[in-house]
Amino acid sequence: MNSRQETLLKFITSEYIKTAVPVGSKLIAEVGNFDLSSATIRNEMAELENEGYIFQPHTSAGRVPSEKGYLFYVQNFLNDATLSKRQKETLDSAVSVENIFDNLLIKNLAKHISSFTAAAVFVAFSENDFYYTGISNLFEQPEFAEQQLVRHLGDVIDHLDLTINKIFDQLVDTVEISIGSKNPFSRDCSSVIAKYSAKDRTGIIGVLGPLRMDYQTNFSLIKYSQQLINNLK
Questions:
Q1: Are 35 and 106 members of one domain?
Q2: Both 29 and 63 in a single domain?
Q3: CA distance 124 to 164
């Protein structure tokens, strides 16, 4: 992939994550700030499609990222961007009252994370003790307008404990992003998860959302929250 195609893929992915609307060459030419003709944009998009990074859903004129496209985006364009002042202050306030590890405190932190993401948030305190919130965030996403996907997502939530048990001891300290077929919860979703270690307590905190999730925001939220929990007494 050349640098021009990388820039195009980044724009297509970012735009689709934001709007949930397939991205066409006309939009790219108008607002993408590319010094390229529409014909050149179409040719480069065709190459990205041939390589499997984007595809055309149904009869739409636009293109959306494939699982391969999202993976390239995550591997190449995510950074350690800090959260906004408001986001930091909100998350800080969830743990700063006592600064001592407590399950209720961590649940409160999860609720605050949920307010900043269009995804569900879950916390595992042990293999058999977990909590989740923000399920309504998922059902509000256009991807889950189809009844079959809703039923499948309900099944995923019903078996959340089984999946957490499977991955509990496999996680390392870094934030892990799993997309589609690589996601242990469901191939229709993506997850951003991290293991925390607060004194003698080890657990998991993460978000579960559609493939079209805001990976940058969710990565930053989980990484910052992991650090907050790790610093608890």
A1: no
A2: yes
A3: 7
What is the rounded end-to-end Cα distance, in angstroms, of the chain?
A: 47
Q: DSSP readout, 155-201?
A: HHHHTHHHHHHHHTTT--SS-EEEEGGG-SS-TTEEEEEEEEEETTE
100 and 145 inside one domain:
yes
Structure-token pair, residue 29: 């030419």
> Domain residues for 28?
3-77
CATH value at residue 35? 1.10.10.10
- Token pair 């951003």 is found at 192
Nearest to 136 by CA among 155, 117, 109, 152: 117
pLDDT in tens, the chain (233 residues): 898 999 999 999 999 999 999 999 888 988 877 888 888 899 999 999 999 999 998 777 799 999 999 999 999 999 887 899 999 999 999 887 677 888 999 999 999 999 999 899 999 998 889 999 998 888 888 887 777 777 778 888 888 889 999 999 888 889 999 999 999 998 889 999 999 998 888 999 999 999 999 999 999 999 999 999 999 98
* Cα 199 from Cα 206, distance rounded (Å): 19
In this structure, the answer to whether residues 90 and 70 fall within a common structural domain is no
Within the chain, strands assigned E span 54-55, 64-65, 120-126, 129-133, 176-179, 189-198, 201-210
